[in-house]
Amino acid sequence: MPGTRSQDLKPWLRALFALPNALYDNGFGWLLGHRFLQLTHTGRHSGRRFRVVLEVVRYDRSTGEATVLSGYGRGADWLRNLQARGPAAVDFGRGPAPAAYRVLGLEEAAEVYAAYEWRNLLIAPLVRWTLTVLLGWRYDGSPEARRRMVAELPMVALRPSGAEVPQSSGPPAT
User: Fold this and answer.
1) How far apart are CA 173 and CA 162, in angstroms?
2) Domains of the chain (ranges plus CATH)?
3) 81 contact partners, CB below 8 Å, separation of at least 6
4) What is residue 8's predicted lDDT score, i.e. its pLDDT?
5) Residue 132 has pLDDT above 70, yes or no
6) Side-chain half-sphere of 137: how many Cα atoms within 13 Å?
7) Is 6 a residue whose pLDDT tops 80?
8) How far apart are CA 143 and CA 67, in angstroms?
9) 39 and 158 in contact (C-beta within 8 Å)?
10) Is the per-residue pLDDT at 86 higher than 90?
11) What is the pLDDT of residue 151?
């Protein structure tokens, strides 16, 4: 089930994943701190602006780099848009800031996720269940399963870039 799209999930699970959007939409995204971020990206075909709230699995305070997991795999629209259109804006609840990104290699991604699991031992059963649903195979948290998981669900690091956040909702000039 790699590349699962949100419309393929059970409605209640899709609604659960969308709850943080309501906080950002109503000016309360700051309550989530650096645990979540809202990514603004431009549609690769439409040129429209979209927003998605993603869980941060690692946040580096010294650089401001936040790492997220593409729960819907390489086919996730936000990831495909980011790769096609380049820089994005990131919001930790205080307003959007320009951002650059990089896709983590498999070894770094496995290390980042192992650290995330260690920091979140209390919710490990819920995380494993969620990953099992997203992946379509039993995720048990073992090093082998972790490597397989990060191969199917890429990790992306977003960091401040210093560029202006584009305000246009149209396609970029060519």
Assistant:
1) 20
2) 6-105+154-160 (2.30.110.10)
3) 41, 42, 43, 44, 50
4) 64
5) yes
6) 10
7) no
8) 19
9) yes
10) no
11) 97
Q: Is the pLDDT of residue 172 over 80?
A: no
Q: Identify the residue with better confidence: 174 or 78.
A: 78
Distance CA 27, CA 44 (A): 27
Identify the pLDDT of residue 171: 34
Question: Is residue 4 predicted with pLDDT exceeding 70?
Answer: no
Query: Any idea of the CA torsion for 97, 99, 105, 110, to the nearest 10 degrees?
Result: 0
* Secondary structure (H, E, C), the chain: CCCCCHHHCCHHHHHHHHHHHHHHHCCCHHHHCCCEEEEEEECCCCCCEEEEEEEEEEEECCCCEEEEECCCHHHCHHHHHHHHHCCEEEECCCCCEEEEEEECCHHHHHHHHHHHHHHCHHHHHHHHHHHHHHHCCCCCCCHHHHHHHHHHCCEEEEEECCCCCCCCCCCCCC
